[in-house]
Design a protein that fits this description.
Number of helices: 1
Strand order of the largest sheet: 4-7-6-5-1-2-3-8
Strand content: over 45%
Mean pLDDT: 91
Helix content: under 10%
Structural class: mainly beta
Order of helices and strands: HEEEEEEEE
Length: 132
């Protein structure tokens, strides 16, 4: 199985927060899904339940959190297939580097089936927050 962080432009961000363990992207809550820049950029946020054992010092200001918002941004959208109806709820997120060097992103769940092929993926940020 592919280590999903290896397809991102900035895997060191996840390593800085989680160390050598990658947060699980199965059964995550889809917080947002956006098409930007005339449809050439895809941005989505997932709510992760995997809390780092040694969180960054700056997170101590917000000690009351039980989830992590991880936002991804993908550039040069080459293809996009999406079906489903909101609410999307829980999804499984998977990344795969294909022979051309592009990256396939899959978000699948009971209310959503998204497959996108892009040139690059970046993790924009990891932010702790308190869910209800």
């Amino acid at each position: 199985m592919i280590n999903w962080r290896t397809v991102t432009l900035n895997p060191e961000l996840v390593q800085h927060v989680y160390g050598s363990l990658d947060p699980v992207l199965d059964q995550t809550r889809l917080l947002s899904l956006k098409l930007l820049d005339e449809g050439t950029t895809l941005k989505f946020s997932l709510s992760l339940k995997d809390i780092p054992t040694n969180p960054p010092q700056r997170w101590s200001r917000n000690s009351r959190y039980n989830a992590i918002n991880m936002e991804f941004q993908a550039w040069n959208l080459l293809s996009l297939e999406i079906t489903g109806t909101p609410p999307f709820g829980t999804v499984c997120c998977a990344f795969e580097r294909i022979e051309s060097g592009s990256i396939t992103i899959r978000l699948t769940g009971t209310g959503l089936n998204l497959t996108a092929t892009v040139d690059s993926v970046r993790i924009n940020h990891l932010t702790p927050y308190l869910t209800s």
